[in-house]
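Model: Ready when you are.
Researcher: Fold this.
Model:
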Amino acid sequence: MGDYRGLNVRRDRGGCCPPMDLMRSEAMQLVRIIVPVESAHVTLSYLGDLGLFQFKDLNADKSPFQRTYANQIKRCGEMARKLRLFKEQMAKAGISHSEMVMTQTRIDFDEMEIKLGELEAELIEVNSNNEKLQRSYNELLEYMLVLKKAGEFFYSAQSSATAQQREIEARQIGDGSLDSPLLLEQEMLTDPSKQVKLGFVSGLVPKEKAMAFERILFRATRGNMYLRQAAVDDPVIDPISGEKIAKNVFVVFYSGERAKTKILKICEAFGANRYPFTDDIGKQMQMISEVSGKITELKTTIDLGMLHRDNILKNISHQFEQWNNLVRTEKAIYHTLNMLSLDVTKKCLVAEGWSPVFATSQIQDALQRATYDSNSQVGSIFQVLHTKESPPTYFQTNKFTSAFQEIVDAYGIAKYQEANPGVYTIITFPFLFAVMFGDWGHGMCLLLATLLLIFREKKLSSQKLGDIMEMMFGGRYVILMMALFSIYTGLIYNEFFSVPFEMFGRSAYACRDPSCRDATTEGLVKVREAYPFGVDPKWHGSRSELPFLNSLKMKMSILLGVAQMNLGIILSYFNAKFFNNSLNTWYQFIPQLIFLNSLFGYLSLLIIVKWCTGSQADLYHVMIYMFLSPTDDLGENQLFPGQKTLQLVLLLLALISVPWMLFPKPVLLRKQHNERHQGQSYTMLHNTEESLEIEEDHDSHDHEEFEFSEVFVHQLIHTIEFVLGAVSNTASYLRLWALSLAHSELSSVFYEKVLLLAWGFNNIAILIIGIVVFVCATIGVLLVMETLSAFLHALRLHWVEFQNKFYEGDGYKFAPFSFALLADEED
């Protein structure tokens, strides 16, 4: 690998091509910056604002905890945690933080850390108190329900007991008889020693567990209990979980301490909340009034606590964005400072990294301002290093070109300063899409949808969009170009929702007599000049429409494919010229160009000649027998004089170009390798410190053994791939014809079998249903599914058929230290 600094200088002089922003990536340089410790923080802050310097990690052998600024990063992480807590609390309270960043006052980092700690402690204390109060409030609400429902149990039981006692007394007024029991119930009631004392437990149990609760109680006490339950009308908030749950009020009557112990354990297991209760009605009324008063007091206290919490959060929300930005930038600064190495005196930090050549003056200006603002006695040192390391790839894009560049980057990041397919993708990608999607009615629908996104881009860019909507918004300018080219190709195909129009003049064909009005092309005669633009509208609906359009679109697909593949091979020449790689020029570019055009370039020539001359020659026959019987006469398939001789020459060139690609390059690479090592036996000594780094890097790369077998096998694979790919890639472009035909036929089916069929019934209801079905089918199938299908096929044609001719895509992206990029990543 050569010295990349030489490439930068040559590009500044103009090189072999005119300078373009996207044609080749920006010239990069490896830079060393020596910064005094006292001004390091301010320096990185200014470089982060500039966003044009990518730092290298000079402490890669150290763990994060062994680095100089590990404690500061830990502090930033703790502050970020507190801010996340504030954000969660604001979201729960329904308070939105201000999007406007307050820049009037400069906040000290240490003061902000103290303030955040105080606010967190205050907020946690307020939340803790509110939680306790809310729990007590929920318990009191449940207690009130128990008092009311259980009171109803006891009141109804007492009423029934009184009625029963009166009935017994009435029965005992008469004289006793032989049937009277020896021990009267009245004696049992009046004699306290003969009464059984019952205890009871009251509370609330979740409604869904009520049946299981009753069964377990029955089994545990062997039936020696009595349970009364009543459902609560509305769900209540459980004091422990804080969730709304439907519950039942229960009262369990039991006898004996063992039964009580079992019942209490079962209540605990089922999550039943128990509350004390008395069977004295007077005490019940007193408890209800006390609980009601406590509920009112707690409600007032909770409202005041929530108001205090909301005031704290509102004060936080006004400065939240400023604090969040400061913490994010501080953490990024300290993280980057950990990538710098301390010099031996521990008074300076040494940074190395990549920057664009055009940013040199801006970086130096930022270093000078940082030195002045930090009151440092010593300025920073800016030094450009020579290196053989491959620089990162950096393209300056805008909101229009960035989406097209992303399409290329999704395949692979361009190698440093190799030809960028993104320049051509801006035109070729939407054009190939439109070849498959050609209908100017559908193109207008896409255009209107895209213009809506573009006109509202300021509003939409600040909103959270869904995954699909965000993808569409990011590629809005790609869709815009796709829509415009679809309108253009739709005008060429003369299709508006599959309906032809005489927009550019009258048709060149007319009926010979009135009887042929409903006939097909039989009976049509050419009465005027050819239709000036696109397909003549009379072809649509004719018997020969499909054969004609098939022939047209198939041949057009081959022409477009061969043209784009030739463009890819030509770009490989510009890459070879730019990198001074004469081997690729002579033993890759030239034989590839000869091979492709000897076969498929010749086929393209035959297509054009056939169109111009109107010949009836069979091109399939010509191409097949060019290989099977190259010396036979062409007969009626001859398109021009000397065609047979030309075919023999082209076939010979195609056969020669295969070994031309395969054998010379590995042999010459081995020869160059041997000469380079022989010439390095004796070298001059250098005095600069950078020479040591260069020599180490040189030793690691250039003194590896040259494996001729590996190089030859690699070249063999490359040759076979190109030869077979020339055939398969040309055939792959026939997808342009196939998808265009499918789109046209689907559109025609929806128009004729849905819209026209509904129109023929002369019924308003059926017509409305037909229109709705037609609109839904057009949007769902043709504007969504077909758009996605054509997009993916155009993507494949660019990635595989076009870019594999010249694009290596093994580079790495320029990732500068930039505060703006940090904000985008967080969003």
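Researcher: Now this one.
Model:
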Amino acid sequence: MIPSPMELLRSHLSKVRIPEPTNRIYKQECCISFDTPRSEGGLYVDLCSFLAFGKEYVGWNYEKTGNPVYLHIQQRRKPVREDRPLKKPTLLAIGMEGGFDNQEPEYEETYDIVILPDYVTLPFPSVELPEKVRLAVDSILIAEGAERKGQLASWTAEKKKVSAYAMNLQQMNNGVVVPPSGWKCSKCDKTDNLWLNLTDGMILCGRRNWDGSGGNNHAMEHYKETNYPLAVKLGTINADLDGADVFSYPEDDSVEDPLLAQHLAFFGINFSSLQKTEMTTAERELDQNINFDWNRIQESGQEVEPLFGPGYTGLVNLGNSCYMASTMQVVFSTRSFISRYYEKQSLKMAYEMSPADPTLDLNTQLTKLAYGLLSGKYSFPAQEMDEVGDCKTTTSSAKQEGIPPRMFKTVIAANHPEFSSMRQQDALEFFQHLLDQVERGNAEKPGFDPSRSFKFIVEERLQCPSGKVAYNKRTDNILSLNIPLHDATNKDQLEAFHKMKPEKNLEGKEMFGFIRANDEIVRPRVPLEACLASFSAPEEVHGFYSTALNAKTTAIKTAGLVTFPDYLVLHMRKFVMGEGWVPKKLDVYIDVPDIIDITHMRSRGLQPGEELLPETVSSGEKMEPTNVAASEDIVSKLSGMGFNYLHCQKAAINTSNAGVEEAMNWLLSHMNDPDIDDPISHDSKTVELMSIDETSVETLISFGFQEEVARKALKTSGGSIEKATDWIFSHPEVSSSVDTDATSSSTQAGDPGVPDGSGRYKLMALVSHMGTSTQCGHYVAHVYKDGRWVIFNDSKVGASVNPPKDMGYLYFFERIDS
């Protein structure tokens, strides 16, 4: 006898869970694809694990877990009313009466209970459903989705600080009992955006927002009158008190109140019975940042032909995430990443290998992103509807919605304080962090590691006045290049600018940056060849200790490449330190050809007739101590910042005059040393390297850092492992400038897995940056594919009309196979 749908559901109740406040609930996006409730077939939420799956993938979850009961969520677009007026805005606000009409489409949401494997369906809501199922579904629908919770956590950026007023907050026993609902401002008729003052129990409306929404400032005015410091936003309180929005007026910030439950109970509030109905401050800020489409109120520049299909999928900007979007578009245009995460690994294979929660697995999320970008499934013109609800015919100006890489961002940025925030980041640092995480993820199968296609070995040659040499090798994945402005090819135009500037100023015409000739900005034009030459050019290394001379001297350093990678990434050092230690961006063009040949940059290694520097001081020779004097330049700059002069001298000496930043790091970590105020003992300072704990060196090496880098970091941070780790992460260029005080030529960085081949390359992509700093502005990627240049500007993908090849920040070259 075939059981009825209700009997079948009851037989599976053991596989149904009622979510707890701490459970992560996914209901907005499939965990292994970019399907949403608006996709064809909707979304299926597992009522046991609370993971969501698209219709095409929910069967895989049933096969893997045996969980049969799902909440099926579908959203269908509502037709627009024929009588909907298009009013002229009279108020600078969005989505408000008199303001801009954002004309966002509305969706109707429907629910069903579905039992696999036969997709037996029961309607929801229904009083006939078992109570456990009703409670589970109600909890899922009320709860904040894990996808959005992650965004909010990133947007808040830093963990809320415990308020200084929370632990000793005095509450007035005035008989106030706050009801569980029906709240209204005590001074006006506002019934939303209400704040409960935790001192006297007054319920008042919040601040007025910039767009005219919000409250009437009565809560703020009450604080100014009474100085009662803390208030909690009504509607944000539920069993998960961590989500409650507590604001401290004197600290002017959202804060944590460890005694919030006690403070609420004082006014008769049973927080476990409340349900969240209001946005927190972080949620409102997030909505205002993301939902406002500036393209609706300003004209974009040059229109490009939109492109759709496999390999032409845009990425939604999650809020200052263009650094990630531009990098990933380029990475997934390389053969190595396409092969690893798309051609040779199916979504199902990745999911079957994933742990219980695939949203936290890097391999799964990289595969998901690869399929999202490369399959073409999500690359189609966004449907627009006319006033009567019919779909408009797509035109050449149609745009795509793109896919939101939220889960990937959560995984790749896990435990990284910067990438997990909503702040703008350096695309270079993200690219290197990505390669590092991918390498770790493929450690058990290094042959599958696609990050190896970017690796190469650099060899540095050091020659001291004795004529003897030392060779050091290191592995890198980017070639960071200085920009020699003195090699500009348009010096005549630049000289004309300097001559014309006084004349223009006399005419009352301001000149910002560089001269404009025929409306074209004139900047220095430096050939890429000059930048590459600067990498290999001889460089003086002062303070190099020669074991042949048994003394510090000046050595000559040159560099070359032992191997050539499959993909050569060139980083243009456009951001330099200006006067007053203020970072500035070089306003310069780089003339980059489509094809380059760096064969001449291959390192030749030890040559016949060359003699290596001895590893140690010659036997019988004793190294005499030599006093190290503090650099007056470093000391004066540090003392000018307010530090004690003696302390500054010690900092310079203990870091071997490496630089102001290194000395400051040492100073900050030794401020409390018991001997910090003792006079400098010149007898104790010699030309020998600062004593470094070998255990600390081994610890950093176990983290994956090179030995030379580890020693330099420990040396400049006073031996602290924590500060040394921070120093390495904050100095990505350190891998290209390791400590050259090493006297041995035995440093080997040979890696049999590093590729090698021809030195001829073709330009395949570039990442450009607009803005004054890598921590602000905007990143855009251009990729050469299918015989044309394509621009990837977040969710916008189109045929590039004039790719800015001379304005790149990162250039990606693909080796030309001979």
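Researcher: Key takeaway?
Model: Residues 39 and 141 are 18 Å apart (CA to CA).
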